[in-house]
Specification:
alpha+beta; Lipocalin; 8-stranded antiparallel barrel
Length: 172
């Protein structure tokens, strides 16, 4: 290894520790509307320009209906309807979510990870991601968060190994 390669190896930050979820989620308490405060930009929300929110409702079969909606550039609402299921016991903070048609739900590739990685004890804000940290959402029960709280959440995200340069504030 040349001198430059050695210097780069010494300056490289260690990979973050594996991501974990919170110990438990009270799913009925989690239900309702959550507003997107910030996110890592992603391809499936590319048409969303404001008012992004998710509404969760518990279904009779134990799954959760997920209704994501936002406004596009024309100010029109666009929606995606999906389903979520817990992985593990009834308090597991690890879920799988799909937005593909139900008849495709037998295919593992249509299900994405949805991990609650931090959660306010009063269920007023939540940090959601997945094991590879490719996706990230900061959600709140209100369309915005007080600046000091948002700064605290950014510090938490940094401690959890998230790249804050990728974090984008969502317009209300």
């Amino acid at each position: 290894m040349g001198g430059a390669g050695l210097a780069q190896a010494q300056n490289a930050s260690p990979p973050p520790a594996p991501l974990s979820s919170v110990a438990a989620v009270d799913v009925p308490r989690y239900m309702g509307t959550w507003y997107e405060v910030a996110k890592y930009p992603n391809w499936f929300q590319r048409k969303c320009v404001s008012s992004t929110q998710a509404h969760y409702s518990l279904q009779a079969n134990g799954q959760v209906q997920v209704r994501n909606r936002c406004k596009n550039e024309q100010g029109e609402w666009i929606e995606a309807l999906g389903a979520a299921k817990q992985i593990g016991d009834s308090t597991s903070a690890k879920l799988k979510v799909r937005f593909a048609p139900e008849w495709l739900s037998f295919l593992p590739l249509v299900w994405g990870d949805y991990w609650v990685v931090d959660l306010d004890p009063q269920y007023q804000w939540v940090l959601v991601s997945e094991p590879d940290r490719e996706y990230l959402w900061v959600l709140s029960r209100t369309p915005s968060l007080p600046a000091p709280l948002y700064q605290q959440l950014q510090a938490k995200l940094e401690r959890l190994g998230f790249d804050l340069k990728r974090l984008q504030v969502s317009p209300p």
